[in-house]
Amino acid sequence: DQQVKQNSPSLSVQEGRISILNCDYTNSMFDYFLWYKKYPAEGPTFLISISSIKDKNEDGRFTVFLNKSAKHLSLHIVPSQPGDSAVYFCAASIGGATNKLIFGTGTLLAVQP
Amino acid sequence: DAMVIQNPRYQVTQFGKPVTLSCSQTLNHNVMYWYQQKSSQAPKLLFHYYDKDFNNEADTPDNFQSRRPNTSFCFLDIRSPGLGDTAMYLCATRWGGAVEADTQYFGPGTRLTVL
């Protein structure tokens, strides 16, 4: 049973526009959420996280929004750049980042120049 | 640069032939993880070490074993690989000492193919 779902396998966006990557979860016990970015032939790298006590966290061009009632989070990238082209994984845990991460299947973002 | 290194990057083995994957890290992290990621699926945690303490996930097959001889190295042993074990195997590390714990740092992975 997939507890963290990324229903869009891929997304294509023009350079300079906004990229919105979505993630849904089913376990209401999740209280910490992360986004990882993965380039080909490299391991995933941490991008941004959010605790369930917040509904928004921002880091430069990257903003994560959390809607607990809908069990939904999204990653906004503004403006999108060609170097942002990668696979983005959503992950969730219970009890903070120290605990087991449950990953989604990833979304491949292609930013077109 | 401090990093997580996995060897080999690509491994082909025959059905039933034991294989060992290696992970080393220069980050001096005390927690090390092994994930399995099959094609188009999410990375799935197999087990992790917190210092020397081994923590196995309930649904990890007995066919998968791990060793951590020291802080820097961790091995994944697959005793009798089946065709279904074809996957990318990711190693990750984390410093597990702080309240606001560090995130996981991943290696590039080993792509294992079982023929």
List the helices and strands and how they pair.
The complex is a heterodimer of chains A (113) and B (115).
Chain A: E1 4-5, E2 10-14, E3 19-25, E4 32-38, E5 45-51, E6 56-59, E7 62-67, E8 72-77, E9 86-93, E10 102-103, E11 107-112
Parallel strand pairs in A: 2-11
Antiparallel strand pairs in A: 1-3, 3-8, 4-5, 4-9, 6-7, 7-8, 9-10, 9-11
Chain B: E1 4-7, E2 10-13, E3 19-25, E4 31-37, E5 44-50, E6 53-56, E7 64-67, E8 73-78, E9 87-94, E10 105-106, E11 110-114
Parallel strand pairs in B: 2-11
Antiparallel strand pairs in B: 1-3, 3-8, 4-5, 4-9, 5-6, 7-8, 9-10, 9-11
Q: What is shown here, in short?
A:
The complex is a heterodimer of chains A (113) and B (115). Chain A is mainly beta and 113 residues long.
Structural overview:
- The complex is a heterodimer of chains A (113) and B (115).
- Chain A has 113 residues and is an all-beta fold.
- Chain A contains no helices and eleven strands.
- In chain A, the strands form two sheets. In chain A, strands 2, 4, 5, 9, 10 and 11 form a six-stranded mixed beta sheet that branches.
- In chain B, the strands form two sheets. In chain B, strands 2, 4, 5, 6, 9, 10 and 11 form a seven-stranded mixed beta sheet that branches. A four-stranded antiparallel beta sheet of chain B has the order 1-3-8-7, with no helix packed on it.
- Chain B is globular.
- Chain B has strands at 4-7, 10-13, 19-25, 31-37, 44-50, 53-56, 64-67, 73-78, 87-94, 105-106, 110-114.
- Chain B is built from no helices and eleven strands.
- The A-B interface holds A 2, 4, 9, 34, 36, 41-46, 49, 89, 96-98, 100-106 and B 4, 40-45, 57, 90, 92, 94, 96, 100-109.
